[in-house]
Amino acid sequence: MTPLVIAHRGASGYRPEHTLASYRLAIALGADFVEPDLVATRDGVLVARHEAEIGGTTDVATRREFAGRRTTKVVDGRELTGWFVEDFTLAELKTLRAVERLPDLRPRNTRYDGRYEVPTFDEVLTLVEAESQRLGRAIGVYPETKHPSYFATIGLALEEPLLAALAGCDLPVFVQSFEPGNLRWLRSRTSRPLVQLVSATGRVDLVTGTGLRRVAEYADAVGVDKELVSPGLVADAHAAGLQVHAWTLRDETDSIEDTQALVAAGVDGLFTDHPDTTLEACRLQ
Ligand code: G3P
Ligand code: CA
């Protein structure tokens, strides 16, 4: 079966990541799902950014009025210096504009620097609902709670606003997290499909036979680093009742054959920065 094509941070190979333009293009290119990573503003609004630190993905460093907010924090064990989303109200964040995170790798995308706002999760849902209606196909959303324990410790839990936003949403949904505790809490509150993320440098114990059976107690899929994928892992996950979604394909590092090897291994979904290339590789399989 053809795997789901999940647009990683939108069509982030072609537009600054986590912008409505990036999600809109991903849908136009045929993606089945768009993937917003979610963090929270000072006033508790979920917005799409990959990190709490927003210096690399917005023009905040050029804004004199926010110079005093530059600071150093430890987020999940990493010391980071910059500007943090939780120190900005939504109104302040909305005055910023997105920039390409990887200008050296993707110089063509810098032509869009300064054009797009940071979208709220509600705005992402509204876009996907409108595009689903317009195109007559159900496009899904695949939100990730980013650093949920960190946000909880500063009084900005991500889970309740996420479930509130999804309450009236008829779109296909997967909710993903690297934190098992976060997913277990969500499992107790929602029947939405949940995805345990596993990085090659992280909780690889979760993708052993025993680990997968434990994950199946609270999740419906594993979202695994593509380096971890093998036919054996996919077979073990399927035996445990879990789908396997692999991340992340990008034109700069992955060939069509690399994509096809993941499909041949039996994965059920593919995260990609370039949805059109991934769809083409699947079609040619
Ligand atoms: O969510 C799957 C994949 O996106 C996890 O990695 O760091 O891009 O959020 P990251
Ligand atoms: Ca993600």
Automatic annotation (TrEMBL):
Residues 3-282 form the GP-PDE domain. It holds the Pfam family GDPD. It catalyses: a sn-glycero-3-phosphodiester + H2O = an alcohol + sn-glycerol 3-phosphate + H(+). Keywords: Glycerol metabolism, Hydrolase, Signal. InterPro entries: GP_PDE_dom, PLC-like_Pdiesterase_TIM-brl. The keyword Cytoplasm does not apply. It is an enzyme of class 3 (hydrolase). Its EC number is 3.1.4.46. Gene3D superfamilies: Phosphatidylinositol (PI) phosphodiesterase (3.20.20.190). Belongs to the glycerophosphoryl diester phosphodiesterase family. This is glycerophosphodiester phosphodiesterase. The lineage of its organism: Bacteria, Bacillati, Actinomycetota, Actinomycetes, Propionibacteriales.
